[in-house]
Specification:
The chain is mainly α. Helices cover about 70% and strands about 0% of the residues. It is built from 5 helices and no strands. Helix 1 packs antiparallel against helix 2, helix 3 packs antiparallel against helix 4 and helix 4 packs antiparallel against helix 5. The protein is globular and about 40 Å long.
Length: about 120
Amino acid sequence: MVGEWLLLLSARAVDSPESRAALFNEINSTAFDLMENGGVFGYPLVSTFAGQLYKLTGKDSGMDDPHVEIIRAHIDALRAVIKGRVKGVSGDVAGKLIADLESAVKKHAPAIQLAS
């Protein structure tokens, strides 16, 4: 459910550039909750990806189209972790999700480094 909400917000950010600040604020709030609670419920990768998403949607975040695509990549990664019930940060599935997210970030903004 949370993943679908984030996906909807990111889709609106693509379609409504003039509303991105408000939409990023909503995404930021949800990302904070996920970051704080993912590990508590046994999903540390949710906390990691949500922490990155939280930073990407903060008050000084970029508002351009590549930035929106990076945000969407994080949301897609979060949805995959939740849907696949990926509990750890190691293993083949977790490793592939991390690599896919890093690849998407490099594609849209080569200078951005993901912090764990």
